[in-house]
Write a structure and sequence with these properties.
The chain is globular and about 80 Å long. β16, α12 and β17 form a beta-alpha-beta unit. It is an alpha/beta fold. α2 crosses α13, α7 packs across α14 and α14 crosses α15. The protein is built from 16 helices and 29 strands. The structure holds flavin-adenine dinucleotide.
């Protein structure tokens, strides 16, 4: 096991090397070599190669012949889309086209390096979304980054492989009256995508229930910070049991370090679009290909999806782009994520369901869009995991703050870490920035000892069972504000809590039918006062963890910094309520906007993910979740894609 803070020995090493001319020249040579290694790491572009068609180059040598017909067209090469296209094209008798609005995630060092994903948030590889002002959260707009690249959000996420509580899926199965979604059956697809890498530090894990041959490598971090270890010990101290495996049949409750991919990110693109898969003659993958709309025909009076229209948006913006059309003989499968599947995205005319004329009649008519099929629930039911960050002064000044260098020494530390990562794939760059977490219930009396609520506060159970959590608590080895866009100028450590089963619902809506308008996204954070109360309890539990003995050597509760949170301990319920309203933000897990549900109960797709009332059109991504999972959603996206691919191949 690796421990921080080796980069902090760097200062002593550098001072020592400066003490004689020979050592100084050694230092200079070492620095140049390190620089070379770091630059190579960041400049080497692992291209997916000419096997992928870049729409910017269509018309030159790699065009998609517009007369081409495909059996299946997958819209959106994200987490679910890459998995689907890869599995569907295993049947060599079927032609598959995968269209992705962004470029390759594998080509980006910021994506490949597990700790660097925050650097993508404000880049061209991200849709720069903001929520509507949050009426129940002090009227603030919230930043909502969504990935725009092959691999989708799996190319930019925190790599936390926790699959949700088994009972979450039992709830899906019961709701749909379809046992294929309940855990005892659906878990097969989690095993199918997973290649579990056993770790001698966790011999208790029952490997017989874990996947062995899937494309997604799942394992434990080889680098664990002191913050993570102190967090685990503090959780145990206040009564949260240690669990060796969040994804075993006993469920998710407890505390541990994350089961995760090792060292280098395993995105959906990296795992499912390997060079061997891309070499398949029956699979075509096009990047920088924005879907502008789904094309429909009438088949015996019924609406049928028959293809898609797409363009290279960058060229379209310069008004010299061509619009392409590809026909789907069998199906169009929309996998553009919980925001873009129901709606439209920026920058460019990206008309998926609503702008294609499928959605709530009154809303479409309001924007002058011809209604092809009135489906009131498209874009509704938006739900996200809301989160709160708490930042504390780091007593030992050994946080990983240098990942966003502010001083010359920080720069040296980053370079040292980059060299170490590059050479051995270890160290702080190989971690996901939040290596330990705890899953708990907000009604656990042990954890709420001493908690003083106010009489009007409400709490109703929104979990899928008494064995399922509604709060996740986790630690990061540095503090930040505003989703990491602002870092502190002192060493900090942070605790975070988020609500796993919120009951507030929002929506994705058209701002206008103008091709270059962003959609409006409104998660309605804290609309239901239950959500507010549960987050306040989460903050309270985090504060207890912060005061536990195991954290004592690491957190400075006597700091005088007004922008840090040592002063929260002892605050009243009303003060914590105000804190939650002020700080609540996304933890990047929107779902349920094309909900799988009976049509009369807010459904957009049925249990086979077919859009109600339209033939040849399915949706497969986080937008279909009937309820948000009480964990991390990427795994459910992989599993749903595996399931759908198998069913389509089996003729369902
Ligand atoms: C910063 C961050 C951290 C996260 N951390 C974790 C974590 O640790 N663990 C976890 O399990 N989950 C995590 N998540 C959430 C998880 O990654 C997502 O829920 C999941 O990846 C969503 O998958 P999807 O298939 O629904 O959509 P996405 O992966 O978002 O894929 C949608 C794809 O469609 C493309 N697209 C959109 N519109 C169009 C169009 N018009 N034409 C063509 N293509 C289009 C997009 O570019 C994108 O590639 C995180 C997410 C983020 C953003």
């Amino acid at each position: 096991m690796d421990h921080f803070p080796s980069p902090y020995r760097l200062e002593q090493l550098i001072s020592f090397l400066r003490t004689s001319p020979r050592r100084r020249s050694l230092l200079a040579t070492g620095t140049l070599a390190a620089l070379y290694i770091v630059l190579r790491h960041f400049w080497t572009r692992k291209q997916t190669g000419k096997l992928v068609t870049d729409l910017s180059e269509v018309g030159t040598q790699f065009g998609i012949d517009p007369r081409d017909e495909f059996d299946y067209i997958v819209v959106g090469g994200g987490t679910s889309g890459c998995a689907l296209a890869s599995r569907l094209s295993e049947d060599t008798s079927k032609r598959v086209l995968l269209l992705e609005a962004g470029g390759s995630g594998r080509a980006l060092a910021l994506s490949r390096t597990p700790s660097a994903y925050g650097g993508l948030f404000m880049s061209n590889h991200c849709f720069p979304l903001y929520s509507e002002p949050q009426v129940f959260a002090n009227g603030k707009k919230k930043f909502w980054p969504r990935a725009k690249m092959l691999g989708g959000c799996s190319s930019m996420n925190a790599s936390m492989a926790q699959y949700g509580a088994p009972e979450d899926y039992d709830e899906w199965g019961a709701f749909m009256k379809d046992e294929s979604w309940s855990w005892k059956n659906f878990r097969r697809y989690f095993n199918k995508f997973e290649k579990y890498v056993p770790d001698p530090r966790y011999p208790e894990v029952d490997t017989s229930v874990r996947g062995k041959h899937g494309p997604i490598r799942v394992g434990y971090f080889n680098f664990i910070t002191n913050s993570a270890k102190a967090f685990i010990d503090s959780c145990i101290e206040i009564g949260i049991p240690f669990t060796p495996d969040f994804n075993g049949p006993r469920g998710t409750m407890g505390v541990m370090t994350y089961v995760d991919q090792k060292r280098e990110r395993v995105s959906s693109e990296a795992a499912y679009l390997t060079p061997k898969v891309l070499a398949r003659k029956n699979l075509k993958v096009a990047i920088h290909a924005h879907i502008t709309r789904v094309l429909f025909d009438r088949d015996d009076g019924e609406l049928r999806a028959v293809g898609v229209e797409y363009a290279n948006t960058d060229l379209m913006l310069k008004q010299k782009g061509t619009v392409y059309r590809s026909r789907a003989r069998k199906e169009v499968i929309v996998s553009a994520g919980a925001i873009h599947s129901p709606h439209a995205s920026h920058p460019g005319r990206i008309d998926i369901l609503m702008l294609s004329g499928i959605g709530p009649r009154a809303h479409l008519e309001e924007h002058g869009i011809p209604v092809l099929h009135d489906l009131p629930s498209v874009g509704t039911n938006l739900v996200d995991h809301p989160s709160i960050d708490l930042n504390f002064k780091d007593k030992r000044n050994e946080s990983t703050r240098f990942l966003r260098p502010q001083t010359f020494m920080d720069g040296c530390r980053l370079m040292f870490a980059a060299v170490r990562y590059r050479l051995g794939f270890s160290g702080p760059l190989a971690m996901n920035l939040g290596e330990a977490a705890a899953f708990v219930r907000s009604d656990d009396p042990k954890l709420l000892a001493g908690y003083k609520s106010v009489s009007e506060s409400v709490w109703t159970d929104s979990t899928s069972s008494l064995n399922s959590p509604d709060l996740e608590l986790f630690v990061t080895n540095f503090g930040f504000l505003d989703l990491g866009r602002t870092w502190f100028d002192v060493h900090t450590r942070a605790l975070h809590c988020y609500l796993l089963r919120p009951t507030s619902r929002g929506e994705v809506r058209l701002k206008s039918n103008h091709p270059f308008d962003l959609p409006t996204v409104n998660p309605n954070y804290l609309k239901d006062s239950n959500d507010l109360e549960k987050l306040v309890r989460g903050v309270y539990i985090c504060l207890r963890i912060a005061r536990a003995r195991a954290f004592e050597p690491y957190l400075d509760h006597d700091s005088s910094r007004a922008d840090l949170d040592q002063g929260l301990i002892g605050k009243t319920h009303a003060e914590l309520v105000e804190l939650v309203r002020e700080r609540v933000q996304t933890v990047y897990h929107p779902s349920s906007t094309c909900r799988m549900a009976p049509e009369g109960e807010g459904g957009v797709v049925d249990a086979r993910l077919r859009v109600y009332g339209v033939k040849g059109l399915r949706v497969c991504d986080a937008s279909i979740f009937p309820w948000i999972v009480s964990g991390h959603p990427a795994a459910a996206c992989f599993a749903a894609a595996e399931k759908l691919a198998e069913e389509i191949k089996g003729g369902m």
